[in-house]
Amino acid sequence: MPVREVDVADVTAAIERLCKEANYDLPKDVYAALEAAKKTEESPVGRAVLDQLTENADIAARDRVPICQDTGYAVLFIDVGQDVHFTGGGFEDAVHEGVRRGYTEGYLRKSVVEQPAHARANTKDNTPAVIHTRIVPGGGVRILFMPKGGGAENMSSLNMLKPAQGVQGVIDAVVETVSKAGSNPCPPVVIGVGIGGSIDMVTVLAKKALAREIGSRHPDPRLAELEDELLRRINALGIGPQGLGGTTTALAVFIEEMPSHIASMPMAVNVQCHAQRHVVAEL
């Protein structure tokens, strides 16, 4: 296949647009899940909260304002075709510039600070972004943008389980993480679970799992069954919408798995709030 040239200016423009769209428009699958939850939520207060969440999403989409005041740390998963050659400048520089423009021109809150343990000075443009890049076959570029709010991210967990703990260890860790989180991540939440890999890779798996469409089933029946079991157990906690009690604590649980070392069983839980923001562009 001939080399395909992609100007990095197109990458910048796409990411600028994604920053705004992700913060203004609740994904259709998430909106539909909130609507469906209204029909099954047993708590009158819970149903009222769900009504407020969809009303809030409607206002954000109509008025082009953020769904939530926490417009998130910019996280990007980018698949680059091996036949692509970028021109016009540095690839990562273009990604950061797209985030800078999107958050500045979209009037989105800048939430990134440098020297986290010391000065904690705001970078004033929400950069640098977190960039996860893969080289894949073909001549395309796929950009998944996921703004990650601090309230939900802070409730996430990394668990270096013993292999003997098995599936029950995973279930216990996920349910405990959500139970401890309580109302902090603004439920109903979406839960990403990573199993396997290494201490660094498993957290990436958990975050990437959040990109799944609500209502989809894992192609592996073994993991699909575990997702269902985890969702049942989480919703039995009674935390409910915004922590005010009810049967809708989570909208979905998604699992990503990969092989691990024989002596290890790392697993991570990435918690996402009801504003399950993610959007994709392809160049």
Structure, described:
By secondary structure, the chain is of the alpha/beta class. The chain has two domains: 4-24 and 67-148, no CATH class; 151-276, no CATH class. Helices cover 39% and strands 26% of the residues. The protein contains eight helices and twelve strands. The chain has helices spanning 8-24, 28-40, 44-63, 91-105, 150-153, 166-181, 201-209, 221-235, and strands at 4-7, 73-81, 84-87, 113-114, 121-122, 130-136, 141-148, 157-161, 189-197, 250-260, 265-272, 279-282. A four-stranded mixed β-sheet has the order 6-2-7-12. The chain has a four-stranded mixed β-sheet with strand order 8-11-9-10, sandwiched between helices. A two-stranded parallel ribbon has the order 1-3. Helix 6 packs parallel to helix 8 (221-235). The radius of gyration is 19 Å and the shape is globular. The protein starts with a strand and ends with a strand. The model has no long low-confidence stretch (mean pLDDT 97).
Summed up:
The protein is of the alpha/beta class and 283 residues long. Helix content is 39%, strand content 26%.
Record the SSE blueprint:
Layout: E1 4-7, H1 8-24, H2 28-40, H3 44-63, E2 73-81, E3 84-87, H4 91-105, E4 113-114, E5 121-122, E6 130-136, E7 141-148, H5 150-153, E8 157-161, H6 166-181, E9 189-197, H7 201-209, H8 221-235, E10 250-260, E11 265-272, E12 279-282
Parallel strand pairs: 1-3, 2-6, 9-10
Antiparallel strand pairs: 2-7, 4-5, 7-12, 8-11, 9-11
